[in-house]
Amino acid sequence: TSSRSYTIAVLPGDGIGLEVMPPALRCLEAAAKRFGFNLEFRHFPWASCTYYHEHATMLPKDWKKDLQACDAIFFGAVGDPATVPDHISLWGSLLLFRREFDQYINLRPCRLMPGVTSPLANREGKPIDFITVRENTEGEYSSIGGRIFEGTDRETVIQNTVFTRIGVDRVVRYAFELARSRPAKRLTSATKSNGISITMPYWDERVEAIAKEYPDVKVEKYHIDILCAHFVQRPHTFDVVVGSNLFGDILSDLGPACTGTIGIAPSANLNPTAKRDDPNQEWLPSLFEPVHGSAPDIAGKGIANPVGMIWAGQMMLEHLGEKEAASAMLLAIENVLKEAKNAHDRGESNILTPDMHGNGTTEELGGEIEMEIGRVS
Ligand code: NAI
Ligand code: MG
User: Fold this and answer.
1) CA-CA distance, 130 to 120, in Å (whole number)?
2) Residue nearest to atom 43 of ligand 1 (CA)
């Protein structure tokens, strides 16, 4: 057996999470087999509404210990809005993991894949291939503030934004490192220092200070409003885009939307500094998931697009240091989508799922990617 071995917590959740997880695990197995490492999957039924119905809680008492015994968390989608309110299912699982494991980076690659029809494709013949880096723990989403004089004429509501130097610097520095590692070496910072006159100038100030450590990276900043326009008008010009919690949230939905269906977009919630084998710090695992939710409208039909989940697995391998396997997985996804798209364009039956205008199933599309992982070069 290989010396490279990883334990993965598998949490499929609800709805189509249960359908896209099995093909994604088979793709990961195929990559492990081909590139000579081991994956041990630990399957957990909790962090799902099914579990909630039986136990009146989303998580068992020892959830944290169970997850901390793993190298990474592979998460499907949670939610059954017809029977459990979303704030209970999401805050009782995913959002709790992000906070408890201090997953301060949220990454979303925005890459136009073959087979995806997008009105933004092929501008100036250039591909769309950028990545958004969102601050995931503080900023505008800090629960500081409150209401007074409720129900009276003086009713007053205040919520504060919290930028800490630690919080801003670590996400900005991560984005610079990422930009440095990519061929284009460009970083775009989202700001709004013309309107938000205290916190946003501070953000800009930290970006400028940290930029001095990265003279090889080209830096630009845009106010969030015009940046959204640029995402739509010239998506092919971006490389790494960094934003606060709120701005990053907006950009990280807009970015994948610029590259087609929600069914293929992946996301990583990272604590990049946590060390598994350091006895002096607590192990805080990172989490990998598709962007989409549990899709109750198509759940049970076997037609969910598995690419978002498989691509999230690809990001997980990259994070675990299995770069070769990660590159092969990405190439396999591209090859299979390209091939199926060609069949679709010739008017032939193809394995693209219905959200990509094909007539394939979750198992067919996932199975083809699994086979391609075994043979791509
Ligand atoms: P959703 O992402 O589940 O679905 C939105 C639309 O996209 C639906 O029409 C769905 O059929 C389609 N879609 C999504 N994923 C697809 C895929 N892989 N293949 C083909 N079509 C796909 O978002 P929605 O409907 O707003 O939320 C449903 C439930 O999921 C709610 O309970 C919500 O809270 C939860 N949710 C959970 C997330 C998570 O676990 N990270 C993220 C987003 C929503
Ligand atoms: Mg969002």
Assistant:
1) 14
2) 293
